[in-house]
Amino acid sequence: MDALAAQTRVERPPAPRQDPAAPPSATPETVVGAEAAARTRGAGRATVSPTAVAALTDAFHQGRHTEAAYHALLAECAGFPLRATIRQEEVNAEFVENIPIAYVRRHGLLGVNRQDGCLGVAMAVPAADGVLDHLAAVLRLPAVVELAPAAVIQQATDHAYAGRVSDFTAVLDTLPGGEASPDSVVTLEDGDLLDTASRAPVVKLVNMILFEAAKRRASDVHLQPYSDHVQVRYRIDGLLYDYLELPGHLLDEVVSRVKVIGRMDIAEKRLAQDGRTTVTIGRKSIDLRISVIPTSYGERVVLRLLDKSARLYELSELGMGAVDRARFTAVIQKTHGIVLVSGPTGSGKSTTLYAALQHLNYKEKNILTLEDPIEYQLPGISQTQVSQKKGMTFATGLRAVLRQDPDVIMVGEIRDEETARMAMQSSLTGHLVFSTLHTNDAAGAVTRLLDLEIEPYLVASSLLAVLAQRLVRNVCPDCHTVEPLAKEDCGLLGLAAHAGAPSVPRAVGCPNCGTTGYFGRQGIFELLIVDEAVRELVVGRAKASAMKRKAVEAGMTTLRQDAIRKLLDRRTTLEEVLRTSLEDSMMDLESDGAECGTRRAEAS
Ligand SMILES: [Zn+2]
């Protein structure tokens, strides 16, 4: 990979015709990808008549030449190098890594290494320039046609992609009949706005980026410009991974294409822009929310993918422990009061709220939501989009919703005093209200409400429960190993030493998980039930740490404890536990002030 990375950095490959070091047979007819290559392209093309190549190809397709004879004639008249065999070590690994098998099969080509640093593209029949442009752009290498027998290419392809075919076919299997490729599977629902013929390579490139994103279960695609290149990243299961490096000169075209998709102003490059649209990738209908913002190296793009066809989760599928689930289910059956879900952005709060609403969704109840944005359409539930620009805030929306005779109201987020006060007051007048807050833990949500100047008695009398949550990544079931926890890690997690070190999973990485070692996520939860004891603390404006301690005494499982449970159940790794419950452990330290100092002193 490193050797190849070095290869991809070749900015100006020697123009092969002028390079004495290049073997004579390596004289390319078609070279694409770099400026130097662009020069040779013009030169090379002038010497060969495309009509002659086309005539030979026609004759071959009509069966008037054998493949060998056709190749010999092409080599003679157009100077294409010939390749009789393809050994596995000659296959370009970067090519196999980045070019989807469907594309490879459809065009009958395979990337091979060449001594001059160019990418050899072995083909039985020379493909159109657009194909070479595409490959050159994706791999950042000038691409050169080489002729090889179709059977040789096919065999080498089968072998090279053997490790990758399984996950790809899994995606292709989900597509409706016919052949799938990045060109055909990404379509705009109401037609393409751009003349795609003239810019086909960039269109294909952007399609391929989206296609791969959907295939790899990415929630976001980032296009980040640097001084000399553009980094394409995917967010998968909450973390960003580098996927592809594009040459810097492609940025403008790629961003323009994304703007077309998002129905944004292509000419505007100095202001931030937002766009949204729906695309179809395979059978999936995916909502794209696109944000473009100018940076010093050009425009940075983030595309958020929302799979509208994805199934909603039920409460039982979120990863909640049996005790928490029973308590939570009991709380949401109440007819009035407020239930909060807390956690940072991307901690799965909406998924939990949707599951709760689904659970309550029967005909006798009128359920209304105010959301920004509406992530999924819930059948039988009236959802309203909040829009600051149009004057529909959470507070004004709530006022309107209350006139709609609701039983259950979901307010997407409490950000200000007005919304908080209205939500709490309406929960006292016979409505069950759900909402979210950005706080680290459950007790913190209570003190946040008090910080918003809500009177303690109002919080105490309306708040039923706070569910704090995070998402931990599930270790990939196909590739993880199981190893005993190190002694110091047991100590770190507060596991009793005498019980012996438990064996826990370690992430490895395989084709099925895209080498991340993880597949999917589940929640870790901390459910604070506001009982009489907690209520007293609220009225007395007690600190969050005191409320947390009281709740733990009453049987609350903390985020960290829940994460450790999932580790011991062998569903996630130590790294995930530490990553997702870091604030929780710090909170524990802060709650015992004196001890905290000594522990830190010992640690340092
Ligand atoms: Zn795996």
Report what the structure shows:
The chain is of the alpha/beta class. The chain is built from 25 helices and 20 strands. The strands form 4 sheets. Strands 5-9-10-11-6-7-8 form a 7-stranded antiparallel β-sheet. The chain has a 7-stranded mixed β-sheet with strand order 14-13-15-16-12-17-20, with helices on both faces. A hairpin with a 5-residue loop joins strand 2 (109-113) and strand 3. Helix 22 packs antiparallel against helix 23. The longest helix is centred in the middle third of the chain and has 16 residues, at 200-215. It is elongated, with a radius of gyration of 30 Å. Residues 1-46, 165-185, 187-199 and 589-604 have low confidence and may be disordered. Zinc ion (ZN) binds next to loops.
Please render the helix and strand layout as text.
Elements: H1 2-8, E1 31-32, H2 35-47, H3 50-61, H4 67-78, H5 93-98, H6 101-107, E2 109-113, E3 119-123, H7 129-139, E4 143-147, H8 150-160, H9 162-173, H10 182-185, E5 186-188, H11 200-215, E6 218-225, E7 229-236, E8 239-247, H12 251-261, E9 273-281, E10 284-295, E11 298-307, H13 322-332, E12 337-342, H14 349-360, E13 367-371, E14 382-385, H15 394-402, E15 408-411, H16 417-428, E16 432-437, H17 442-451, H18 456-462, E17 463-475, E18 481-484, H19 487-492, E19 503-506, E20 518-529, H20 532-539, H21 544-553, H22 559-568, H23 574-580, H24 582-591, H25 593-603
Parallel strand pairs: 3-4, 12-16, 12-17, 13-14, 13-15, 15-16
Antiparallel strand pairs: 1-4, 2-3, 5-9, 6-7, 6-11, 7-8, 9-10, 10-11, 17-20, 18-19
Zinc ion is lined by residues 476, 478-479, 509-510, 512-513, 517.
